[in-house]
């Protein structure tokens, strides 16, 4: 059946994704296939060599927003969380997330 919350990896630890990893568009399709009530991108922008985020910032910072864009196109509610953000269940359930900065 449907999944209430899908935490989907949308990136790798370096400039390329290895075989079997999800990129943002494929992760959005997975979110649709599992009928996610809410999808959150994870595992991007971490464990990079020092300074690499300055050389290729799109690969470091972009996958979360790109996933949200593709998820919306797939008809999935998605949100990108940043360090310190909290995801609260609203009275409408996960379909209408409340995001609160800490």
From TrEMBL:
Domain of life per record: Bacteria
InterPro entries for this protein: RibonucZ/Hydroxyglut_hydro
Gene3D superfamilies documented for this protein: Ribonuclease Z/Hydroxyacylglutathione hydrolase-like
Protein name: MBL fold metallo-hydrolase
Record organism: Rhodococcus oxybenzonivorans
């Amino acid at each position: 059946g449907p999944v209430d919350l899908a935490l989907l990896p949308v990136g790798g630890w370096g400039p390329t994704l290895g075989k079997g990893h999800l990129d943002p568009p494929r992760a959005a399709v997975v979110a649709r296939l599992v009928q996610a009530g809410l999808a959150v991108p994870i595992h991007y922008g971490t464990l990079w060599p020092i300074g690499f985020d300055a050389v290729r910032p799109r690969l470091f910072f972009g996958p979360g927003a790109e996933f949200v864009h593709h998820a919306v196109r797939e008809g999935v509610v998605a949100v990108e969380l940043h360090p310190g953000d909290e995801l609260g269940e609203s009275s409408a359930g996960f379909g209408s997330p409340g995001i609160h900065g800490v």
